[in-house]
Amino acid sequence: MLRLTDIKLPLDHDEQALELAILSKLNISKSELLSFDLFKRGYDARNNRNIQLIYTLDVEVEKQEELLAQFSRDPHVRVTPDMRYKFVAQAPTDLTHRPVVVGLGPCGLFAALILAQMGFKPIILERGKAVRERTKDTFGFWRKQELNPESNVQFGEGGAGTFSDGKLYSQVKDRKHYGRKVLHEFVVAGAPEEIMYVSKPHIGTFKLVNMVEKMREQIIALGGEFRFSTRVEKLDLEADNKNHKIKGLYLSGGDYISCKQVILAIGHSARDTFTALYEQGVYIEAKPFSIGFRIEHEQSMIDHSRFGDNIGNPILGAADYKLVHHCKNGRTVYSFCMCPGGTVVAAASEPGRVVTNGMSQYSRHERNANSAIVVGVTPEEDYPGHPLAGIELQRSLEALAFTVGGENYHAPAQLIGDFLTGQPSAEIGVVKPSYTPGITLTDLSKVVPDYVTHAIREAIPAFDRQIKGFAKQDGLLTGVETRTSSPICIKRGADYQSVNVHGLYPAGEGAGYAGGIWSAGIDGIRVAEAVALAIAGDAS
Ligand code: FAD
């Protein structure tokens, strides 16, 4: 098959146009084109009066070799790569030590699935509850301000992205096409087929809940075992030359599990576990992350700015955006985790703290658009001296937001116009806050360091030059956004094991090796393969 990339057609093209575009591109007759499949469809809306759809197509033709030679200088005509997933090992029949996966976010879920599919019968430990019960706790917190520190937006089956927009893309390098495996397994578990071919797929909250359950059923059918409400508290280590090696895990409730291979996929909010690991000598470094606010506008304003008269076109859906501004003070401000037609959510996992994030349903039909507007921070400049100092910075900002919000989990908020001019807000405008439990209008400069306030004050007017109305008085900022990525990296070597604990495989976002659902799933596959090869190697 040949893969044709960058085939551009107008948004309103008719059904025949794709076939005609292929014939014209390859300069062949209809009879020479045997079949074609849609691989990817994106769009270019930079000129909203002439929005173009951009296709990647796999085509079966007569005389493929001749065409390849003819187009050898054209990077948009190539042989279709083989992207099918191939298992790297099979579990030995006399499997003596089952691998353990800690954490059931997308990283742990995919690690467990791949291990199960190769016959390794993983044991999965998750501190939170199964997804249905967890959903009740999470929505309970949003409605009644009762936080369960073990069952919330961050913790529980499905991990941090379960109540999210379910965006499934990132800029990670994926040379082995593991991302296709992630998408394929999601479709098997009930995700819409379109995630295989749209360039920026998303699933939305409620679909994810069902999918996670289906994937659990598959893993159990393959011999995997799940233990919910089971928190890993400490590693059992033994000396291994100058380093350590895993012997087992101490669990909440006083249980113990003996094991040789542990995939540690605990996400970016497992602060207590990070501390325990650090105290046991697991090598950890501080890493950069970002802090700031959630911004909300009316979705119709964003749609109008991005799509003009094409608003409502079903191919385009609700508009998103991605913005970056380099400030005079050397900081970079950018939009992150944009949720079209969604809501701002309370994402705390510790009592007495306020953290924002965003989610949407698959339909993205809510009134507001939201995204994080955040400023990059680094250990060198902003939290030097200790590998866990970034966590303390996050905690102090979240605690301050809790206090300023009124100590009832209401989040501090301010109208954009007032934030830009430095006045506390007194009244909500056109944009109604979507955050529950609720907001407290205030002066947001009180809850973040000055450099964050200055940088965001400079960035928002710059963003307004790209999206007209972005800096409008009535838009809303809610804070604080601190869990953009992990503030630490649990260093691993080329064999995916901790650099000083043999048998410990730090993985996913919490360990600093992923950012987002899709890349966490990809990292889960990578690490599962490393574990499978290690066990198969030991057995041979
Ligand atoms: P996590 O998903 O954080 O999973 C870690 C799991 O480990 C948790 O279930 C936790 O309970 C468990 N755990 C922690 N400590 C222990 C322990 N000691 N013992 C046992 N279990 C433990 N990303 C996107 O790509 N698209 C989006 O649209 C998106 N929206 C988001 C919306 C919200 C509200 C949030 C909070 C995040 C969103 N993200 C989104 C980010 C995304 O969820 C994360 O990048 C992703 O979940 C990271 O996957 P992970 O498996 O590495 O960790």
TrEMBL record:
InterPro entries: FAD-binding_protein (IPR028348), FAD-depend_C (IPR049516), FAD/NAD-bd_sf (IPR036188). It holds the Pfam family FAD-depend_C. Residues 288-484 form the FAD-dependent protein C-terminal domain. This is FAD-dependent protein C-terminal domain-containing protein. It comes from Brumicola pallidula DSM 14239 = ACAM 615. SUPFAM superfamilies: FAD/NAD(P)-binding domain.
